[in-house]
Amino acid sequence: MDQSQIDALRGAAVAKRGHIIDGKSVPASDGATMDIVSPIDGSVLTQVACGTAADMEAAIASARASFDDGRWSGMPPAARKKVLLKWADLIDANALELAVLGVRDNGTEINMAIKAEPGSAAGTIRYYAEALDKIYGEIAPTSADVLGLIHKEPVGVVGAIIPWNFPMMIGAWKLGPALAMGNSVVLKPAETASLSLMRMVDLAHDAGLPPGVLNAVTGEGAIVGEALGLSMDVDVLVFTGSGGTGRRLMEYSARSNMKRVYLELGGKSPNIIFADAPNLDEAAKVAAGGIFRNSGQVCVAGSRLLVEASIHDDFVAAVVKAAEAMPVGNPLDMTTAIGAVNSEVQLAANLGFVETAKSEGGEVITGGERILQDIGGFYMAPTVITGVTPDATLTQKEVFGPVLGVTSFSDETEATRLANATVYGLAGGVWTSNLSRAHRMVKSVRTGVMHVNTYGGADGTVPLGGVGQSGNGHDKSLHAIEKYINLKTAWIKL
């Protein structure tokens, strides 16, 4: 990938998009559309169908029909594998087009997007394609006159609601295991980032996925998302996004058919720096990248920096230096390290958190303001705020922007207490040369992922999931398959 290849795609016209139902592109039933605004410059990229509840019901009916007639669920595993592997190959073959389209839609810097979006999505689809014919049933240990068999069956229709920060990557985390196990899926992309994910669905059909197995409906969450959540014909609902929406989806399950609901709801992840960290300069650079890449719009972002008091001032200065060395700009420029905030609404929310932090006694050491307004897009300077107390809003609430709150601690006990002082528990990190301390912190910090002397980078071989109000269930790894299967016992008298 070089800049000239990116430049050849950055101004390409983007066709209007309809829903994808039963393998065909269809408009909203009432003809409504919504503008897709690029965070790069504030321009309207294109329009997509703004769905109705009837549109979602049609997509669910298509998925149900495809599941019940066995066109995918009844296909031999080797045949499903062939389709999924071809899909992964097509994603790889179209990676640059997909990455540029996604960046124009959501603002992620291209250097991150090319790996995290099509690169990750293709790898995930390929991983589950290779796994699907290695998932065996079980024979129970019974008495000699009984045969107990445990079958693993697809659940049926899966509803998947995908966020805007990494639509292809997170979409593949849901689609890969769900489709590999023989389910049919109804996809609801985010309002502000649907284009690359919809294009990925096109490629699935090009790869030979039967019509109706993967449907996608664009539109407002309050309309089509609600219809998906309340459907009596959806068996499992998976979602990555905000806690408020997650709670509504659980309510919709209770009000409808008690469908299983799996939620990844973000976090307020602590990155803990001890004075004996093996390389404090490296830790500072990684800490800056762990919160400021993709403008902080990462569910596992290390948004709380906990620093041992004896090194606090020097370490904060190193983080500020690293942050200020990360160029903010047009995310389609390869020299850009921090791209655009996804939307004007999100940018305003980020700036509001900064003002709240200042009113609560925090000190803005760098950043804290909107920048590059002349471009017309939505950009924010990487922001470091010190003096953040355990009960401060910046400690307790997820910003989902390039805002780092810093708190000092005196010893390991206090570090653990501060790390666990929120309702979240998605990710965390600890930097220390003390192996015993590292193991103690991994065990004592309540979180789903704990990094040691690094932050980020965990691949698809390990699960991602949170505790507390960070959600339930797991994406990635073989453990994700558990969400998309039913266990059925056959008890046979011999």
Tell me what you see in this structure.
Helix 4 (95-106) packs across helix 5 (110-131) and helix 10 crosses helix 11 (312-324). The mean pLDDT is 98. The chain has a seven-stranded mixed β-sheet with strand order 14-17-18-13-12-19-20, sandwiched between helices. The chain is globular and about 70 Å long. The protein is α/β, with parallel strands linked by helices and 494 residues long. 38% of the residues lie in helices and 20% in strands. The chain folds into two domains: 3-265 and 471-491, 3-Layer(aba) Sandwich (Aldehyde Dehydrogenase, Chain A, domain 1), CATH 3.40.605; 270-459, Aldehyde Dehydrogenase, Chain A, domain 2 (3-Layer(aba) Sandwich). 52% of the residues are buried.
